[in-house]
Design a protein that fits this description.
By secondary structure, the protein is of the alpha/beta class. Helix content is 42%, strand content 15%. α4 links the parallel β4 and β5.
Length: 469
């Protein structure tokens, strides 16, 4: 069967790549289409056996729009949505162009579904699949988690690289070493997944070191890999695994690499090993410079002391690092927001970034905002905007918070500008402030990703939709 995956932007998503790898193992044909990049795509998909969208909340609106256009021309084509959004917001099955939704991790259940679809067998009673047929919706329980990640084939990067030279030629490639997250931050959907998968297997899983090393070697051989980015939210949770991996990585790969972790997870020994293994930079979330907001409002178990100690150790071993931050938070004052800037400046962060919080419906932070009348009662996932656009909360200093987000990078890198920034953010929003932010984002990308100005410009053009709508 021919399966077409459709997505809004040119970006390598692990979900479609893993699904494609398993589907191809079972003899199916798989192709990715980014409609904005491919003329005549609508005529091309007429031979499809299935149209698949993997979407997050916010991109779901685009997906439904395209799905509706497909159904208007090809009403017989089955359409399935998977990913975070339909897993959390299962009422997506009620949307007119949606025939199926896949819940949670779908590596093998999706292939079973496609096999049945191809043979015209019943597709209404598969675990992990909700189906709409003859006006009736069939709801099935979520599938058990695959606990041994080494059983899975490596992600099918050809799904993207065979068509999009821009991605294939990027010197840095992303890898995933685990699935699941042990934390339940209020701004994340992780708590939803933990509840969904209760009794369905071990949530936090790690790949075998040899399995991961082999994938990196294959990608290096095929695509001229120059640097590695591990995209796990919690790369350093298993310290025994990490220590063994760093030693083996240095011996067998030794390319520059980056990863994300929670401040306080890395002791001095691990930081030293990471540096010796050719780690070029690491990243962690601060979120807020106010410890109460961070721990009580955002439910992120991270104290100021851990941030300061982590910054000190990283500087001591000359390992560059970046941070993730937010402004416009519930209960946050302007002084709290500047405290976040000062904390970043104090630890001398190399690559700070900051967004305006977007309280996604379904998260704990959204529930908090509703309970405290900080957001409109009728706010839905369809109202979600990009994290850099504007705030959706009812804030006393809303305009200044939005302006401060534009100047956040400058304030962290040059704290002597803070008095000036305090005056500038009082002005009306204007294109100059947006330009300041875009320049800061480009500077951060060039330095953190070790790419040239031309590549940075290409990335900016490709990802403009994810920054400002």
């Amino acid at each position: 069967m021919k399966i077409y995956f459709l997505q809004e932007i040119i970006y390598e998503y692990f979900g479609p790549m893993y699904l494609s790898a398993v589907l191809k193992q079972h003899g199916h044909q798989v192709e990715m289409i980014v409609p904005d990049e491919e003329k005549g795509w609508m005529n091309k998909i007429q031979d499809a056996g299935l149209i698949a969208f993997s979407c997050m909340t916010s991109s779901h609106k685009w997906g439904l729009k395209i799905a509706k256009e497909i159904k208007q021309k090809y009403p017989h084509l089955p359409i399935i949505f998977g990913g975070v959004h339909p897993t959390v917001f299962t009422d997506m099955i009620n949307e007119a162009p949606v025939d199926y939704i896949a819940l949670g991790e779908s590596d093998y259940l999706f292939t079973n579904f496609v096999n049945r679809l191809e043979k015209n067998q019943d597709t209404t009673n598969l675990k992990g699949i909700w189906a709409k047929k003859d006006g009736q919706i069939f709801k099935n329980e979520i599938e058990h988690l695959e606990e041994d990640l080494d059983k899975l084939p490596f992600p099918d990067r050809e799904l993207y690289y065979s068509k999009y030279k821009f991605l294939r030629d990027m010197p840095t490639k992303r890898f995933m070493t685990s699935r699941g997250c042990p934390f339940q931050c209020a701004f994340c959907f992780n708590h939803v997944y933990l509840k969904l998968y209760q009794g369905k297997g071990r949530w936090l899983r790690k790949r075998g070191i040899d399995n991961l090393i082999q994938e990196i070697k294959e990608v290096k051989q095929k695509y001229g890999l120059k640097s590695v980015r591990f995209s796990d939210d919690t790369f350093a949770t298993n310290k025994i695994w990490l220590k063994e991996f760093l030693i083996k990585y240095q011996q067998e790969i030794n390319l520059p690499f980056t990863f994300l972790f929670i401040a306080g997870e890395l002791n001095e020994e691990l930081i030293k090993l990471a540096k010796e293994a050719n780690c070029s930079s690491v990243y962690f979330g601060i979120e807020s410079g106010n410890e109460y907001i961070r721990m009580k409002i955002l439910n992120k178990p991270l104290k100021d002391r851990a941030i300061l100690e982590t910054g000190y150790l990283l500087r001591k071993h000359k390992l560059k690092f970046g941070t993730y931050n937010m402004v416009g938070l519930p209960t946050e004052t302007l002084e709290d927001a500047f405290k976040t800037i000062r904390l970043n400046a104090k630890i001398k962060v190399n690559f700070p970034t900051c967004s305006l919080i977007q309280p996604y419906p379904g998260t704990k932070i959204f529930e908090y905002c509703v309970a405290h009348n900080l957001i409109e009662e009728n706010y839905t996932p369809d109202d979600i905007i990009t994290m850099y656009e504007k705030s959706v909360l009812k804030l006393p200093d809303k305009r200044q918070m939005e302006n401060l987000q534009r100047f956040f990078y400058l304030g962290c890198k040059f704290p002597s500008l803070i008095p000036l920034i305090k005056q500038l953010i009082k002005l009306p929003k204007n294109p100059f402030f947006k330009l300041i932010f875009m320049a800061s984002l480009a500077h951060r990308s060039i330095n953190s990703m070790n790419i040239g100005l031309i590549d940075a410009f290409k990335i900016g053009i490709r990802f403009r939709k994810t920054v400002f709508k």
